[in-house]
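Duplicate of #3305? Posting structure anyway:
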């Protein structure tokens, strides 16, 4: 029953998202395939090694090269270049045994530092070690770059046997811990190695993946709470998980073999793909790039391993079998192609069921605030902008000090008059910290001597759009304690950085106060009262009969696992059209809270603090908003103070995730869930039909464009008579 209910909930998500807008970085200089992608010093730079001679440093956001270096004829790069984190220098291995280091300002690589070692080098790995990198030799030895440069002719003792070769390696990190993981192979036998420069507890053990001794198609590793987790994709279209506990690094408790367990199966994935690569994105997401034999285009898919779901998918038209390794660097996924880099940002959170079902915000998202406290510049989620300077900073500085002196002397009436003149003009950003200090003085005065004038001063300060929760958290704390609904509503509309715990406290307060307290609050609920009367009407259709089936008879069999026998929904047609479960004034307060920017990973545990009754009322109200949004052709409410469809779906998913078991056991929630499921199915069907029409329109546009390019004139040249 639990699984059936979970499947029905998945239909609450109308649109999936996980990737941002993709772009192509290039064309790449030189020729040959990309053999290395490494961090370039910050999240917006990447170091690319292409072919046997070229190294290029790119600025991703501006899509241009910051520097490019090439080796001369007769030299070849044998290990990709890295940027040393501690020194800022670039390092590369040429001809297997020569290290070459240079700075970004260097132009001629023939005049830079080089060092020849006695043993062949397999790879340079960037990290916080001495010299900013580690050197992995082909014999399996690991040393810091400084150690190798200081003693290049010293003997290196490795852990690999004769004929054993390294197939894959990576640096994994967790907080302050950095380890080097590599896989070696000899006669189809795999061994997993974990080491670090100067680490006396380096160890290795046989590795078995999916019961097969062969190397998997792709693999990646991360550190989770100091435990090594290795995820592998094998030819049977299954992901396998291998774990090495931190205690196993003790030689006395060394495992005899590292085994793997099946993590999930990738349905629809073709194991006969010509190119396969994967990258782990956090604890629960895996990105897989592949080029199926049956398709001319590649595919980049994002899977949630916790809930075994496909999160997002992208098509890569110019992907070939010679593409490079998929890498995750600085919040972006990089896939090397023949002449360019395919770059796509990845955003998401793996902590909740809502995210697993594709609840991530899109690139056009407008509900997040951008806050820069260094310059006191804040852009709110509702598109409000701060006023520009219209008077001198010095004069307003003196005016604020005058208001503060009035408050200290108890002349709140004069302070209110002076403040009214101040906020009626434009306030420079440089004075926002002074207004925050003035607000703290008003709060202290209100605590000692409550009064209407001081309260009005506080309302004016909050309405000035110059304050935030970070600059003056006492305001929010005092308003919540005093249960001042009107001022709390203003704070929710003007503060761009309200913490998730405070946000849930506001929702809890709005749902718990009596109706008499709500009616006393000076809150404008005109937009909410007009909300149901602003629905877009399709010509020829009645307003109260939308093309939405809330009682789909075909769903009876699917819902049988959730509804007990003989307990089918007996609601009449009039009862199945959801009405607003709260008053318009209370709904206006809830809307302000529902439109606040948040992080789902932080909000989810906070939502669990809501009582079961409050969670049910909130779910009914979200169902009402969901229904109203679906009735509109555009999917938008036409109001800046009423949540839009995407925001409503996000909240429904998070709320059900936070109170899954409670709502499952509540009979009152059953009908709400079923109605939302049926409503969502109808919307998904509409979207499916629109997608088919969009494909036809695109073909029509393509044919018209092709016809427009056809030459209308021709000429004849006489070549010979």
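Output from current build:
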């Amino acid at each position: 029953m639990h699984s059936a209910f979970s499947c029905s909930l998945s239909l609450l998500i109308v649109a999936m998202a996980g990737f941002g807008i993709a772009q192509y970085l290039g064309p790449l200089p030189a020729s040959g395939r990309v053999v290395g992608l490494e961090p370039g010093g910050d999240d917006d730079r990447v170091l690319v090694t292409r072919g046997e001679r070229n190294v290029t440093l790119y600025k991703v956001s501006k899509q241009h090269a910051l520097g490019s270096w090439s080796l001369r004829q007769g030299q070849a790069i044998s290990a990709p270049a890295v940027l040393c984190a501690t020194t800022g220098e670039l390092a590369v291995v040429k001809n297997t045994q020569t290290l070459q280091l240079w700075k970004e300002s260097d132009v001629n690589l023939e005049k830079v530092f080089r060092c020849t070692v006695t043993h062949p080098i397999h790879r340079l790995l960037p990290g916080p070690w001495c010299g900013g990198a580690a050197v992995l030799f082909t014999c399996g030895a690991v040393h810091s770059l400084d150690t190798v440069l200081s003693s290049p002719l010293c003997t290196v003792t490795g852990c690999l046997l004769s004929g054993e070769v390294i197939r894959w390696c990576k640096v994994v990190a967790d907080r302050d811990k950095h380890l080097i993981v590599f896989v070696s192979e000899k006669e189809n036998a795999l061994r997993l190695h974990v080491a670090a420069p100067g680490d006396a507890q380096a160890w290795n053990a046989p590795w078995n993946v999916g019961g097969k001794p062969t190397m998997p198609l792709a693999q990646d590793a991360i550190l989770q709470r100091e435990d090594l987790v290795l995820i592998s994709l094998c030819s049977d279209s299954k992901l396998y998980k291998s774990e090495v506990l931190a205690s196993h690094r003790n030689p006395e408790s060394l495992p005899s073999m590292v085994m793997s367990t099946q993590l999930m199966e990738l349905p629809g994935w073709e194991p006969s793909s010509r190119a396969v690569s994967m990258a782990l994105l956090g604890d629960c997401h895996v990105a897989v790039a592949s080029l199926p034999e049956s398709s001319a285009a590649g595919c980049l898919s994002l899977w949630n391993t916790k809930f075994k779901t496909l999160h997002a998918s992208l098509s890569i038209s110019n992907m070939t079998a010679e593409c490079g390794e998929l890498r995750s660097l600085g919040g972006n996924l990089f896939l090397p192609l023949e002449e360019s880099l395919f770059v796509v940002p990845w955003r998401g959170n793996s902590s909740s069921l809502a995210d697993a079902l594709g609840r991530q915000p899109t690139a056009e998202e407008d509900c997040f605030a951008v806050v820069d406290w260094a310059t006191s510049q804040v852009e709110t989620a509702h598109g409000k902008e701060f006023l520009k300077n219209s008077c001198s900073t010095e004069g307003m500085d003196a005016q604020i000090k005058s208001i503060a002196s009035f408050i200290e002397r108890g002349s709140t009436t004069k302070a209110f008059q002076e403040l009214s003149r101040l906020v009626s003009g434009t306030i420079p950003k440089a004075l926002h910290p002074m207004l925050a200090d003035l607000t703290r003085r008003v709060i202290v005065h209100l605590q000692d001597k409550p009064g209407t004038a001081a309260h009005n001063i506080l309302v004016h300060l909050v309405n000035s759009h110059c304050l935030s929760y970070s600059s003056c958290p006492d305001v929010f704390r005092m308003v919540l304690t005093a249960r001042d609904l009107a001022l709390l509503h203003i704070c929710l509309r003007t503060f761009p950085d309200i913490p998730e715990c405070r946000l849930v406290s506001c929702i809890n307060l709005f749902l718990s106060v009596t109706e008499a307290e709500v009616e006393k609050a000076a809150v404008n609920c005109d937009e909410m009262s007009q909300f149901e009367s602003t629905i877009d009407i399709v010509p020829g259709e009645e307003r109260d009969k939308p093309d939405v089936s809330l009682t789909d008879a075909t769903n009876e069999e699917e819902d049988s696992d959730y509804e007990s026998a003989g307990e089918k929904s007996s609601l009449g047609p009039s009862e199945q059209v959801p009405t607003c479960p709260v008053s318009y004034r209370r709904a206006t307060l809830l809307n302000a809270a529902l439109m606040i920017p948040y992080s789902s990973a932080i909000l989810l545990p906070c939502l669990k603090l809501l009582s079961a009754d409050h969670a049910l009322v909130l779910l009914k109200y979200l169902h009402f908003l969901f229904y109203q949004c679906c009735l509109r052709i555009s999917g938008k409410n036409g109001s800046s103070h009423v949540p839009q469809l995407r925001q409503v779906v996000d909240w429904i998913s998070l709320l059900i995730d936070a109170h899954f078991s409670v709502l499952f056991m509540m009979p009152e929630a059953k009908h709400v869930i079923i109605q939302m499921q049926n409503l969502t199915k109808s919307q998904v069907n509409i979207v499916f039909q629109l997608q088919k029409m969009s494909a036809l329109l695109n073909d029509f546009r393509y044919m018209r464009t092709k016809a427009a390019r056809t030459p209308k004139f021709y000429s004849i040249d006489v070549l010979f008579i």
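Confirmed duplicate; merging threads. The longest strand covers residues 165-174. Residues 1-17, 350-392, 534-575 have pLDDT under 50 and may be disordered.
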